[in-house]
Design a protein that fits this description.
Blueprint (H helix, E strand, L loop, with lengths): L1 E8 L6 H7 L1 E4 L2 E4 L2 E4 L6 H9 L4 E4 L3 H11 L3 E8 L7 H10 L5 E6 L4 H16 L4 H14 L1 E5 L4 H6 L15 E8 L2 E9 L1 H16 L4 E7 L3 H10 L8 E6 L2 H7 L4 E7 L8
Parallel strand pairs: 1-2, 1-6, 6-7, 11-12
Antiparallel strand pairs: 3-4, 3-5, 8-9, 8-13, 9-10, 11-13
Helix pairs in contact: 3-4, 5-6, 8-9
GO molecular function: lipid binding
Keywords: Lipid-binding
Protein name: DegV family protein with EDD domain
């Protein structure tokens, strides 16, 4: 029996093959077009989703049920002593609440539910790091300490073509203050304590891309950085941003990650951004 199993939800945007390789269980959220309900990453691929979004269809989302989490937990407890379940920010979704309800239905089980206060690639990075530590045989307490360390270290900045998707889905947070501003402003937004907040206003996408790269470079200083470029349905934009990050300190890593359907339903297809942290934050606490 393994010591520890890692669970997350589909907003971590982990490729299925990677999740399987690392032993990560993903409980999917739902994407809804009218009366059609799809499991994120299971029944609906990104290409079809973006085609429907570009065609003007409105997508909404819903969290997993406590029963879905309970079923996942019960299955894992047949082969694992403990479970750490890491999820999208409580202030963006009710997913954490559903996981906590499921945990309460299994009072004898060793299950820890973590509100990451993150989403998308940032959440995925925490989950991947926790899963690697679990595979290395680290005890649950050490894995949880690593998770806390990483959540504090990770920074998220992103920009979108329109605030309408965030407004419509009720996830706009402090960015509400930017509604109604003049056209051609590309707001740079951030996640602060699990909620979306405005960071800066810049004029034009090229300026926004340059500013995102500057933010990461300034945060790095002389330290190697792990940096992830987040992309919606805009691969060229992501490539341009990745090229601007070439000035990061030696030893830095830059990778590109696709934003999944649930997150894109609330940001729109034109979302792009960066997730970064010092590389040392990815290692166990001494």
């Amino acid at each position: 029996m393994q010591e520890l199993a890692i669970v997350t939800d589909s907003t971590a945007d982990l490729p299925p093959a990677l999740a399987q390789e690392m032993g990560i269980t993903i409980v999917p959220l739902k994407v809804i077009f009218g009366r059609e309900v799809y499991r994120d990453g299971v029944d609906l691929d990104r290409t079809t989703f973006y085609q429907r979004l570009h065609a003007g269809e409105v997508a909404t989302t819903s969290q997993p049920s406590p029963g879905e989490f309970e079923a996942a937990y019960r299955h894992l407890l047949t082969r694992a002593k403990s479970i750490v379940s890491i999820h999208i920010s409580r202030r963006l979704s009710g997913t954490v609440n559903a996981a906590e309800t499921a945990r309460s239905l299994l009072p004898e089980a060793d299950i820890t539910v973590v509100d990451s206060r993150l989403v998308a690639g940032a959440l995925g990075l925490v989950v991947r790091t926790a899963a690697r530590a679990a595979q290395e045989g680290k005890p649950p307490a050490e894995v949880l300490s690593l998770i806390d360390q990483l959540i504090t270290a990770i920074k998220v900045y992103f920009s979108i073509e329109s605030l309408e998707y965030l407004r419509r889905g009720g996830r706009i947070g402090g960015a509400q203050a930017l509604l109604g501003t003049i056209l051609k402003i590309n707001p740079i937004l951030t996640l602060a304590d699990g909620v979306i907040q405005p960071f800066e206003k810049v004029w034009g996408q090229k300026a926004a891309l340059r500013r995102l790269a500057e933010i990461a470079t300034a945060a790095a200083g002389n330290r190697p950085l792990f940096c992830q470029v987040l992309t919606g349905d805009n691969q060229e934009t992501a490539a341009a941003l990745a090229s601007l990050l070439s000035g990061l300190p030696p030893g830095s890593t830059v990778e590109t990650a696709a934003i999944g359907t649930v997150v894109a339903a609330h940001t729109g297809p034109g979302v792009y951004g960066i997730v970064f942290c010092p590389k040392r934050a990815l290692e166990p606490v001494p």
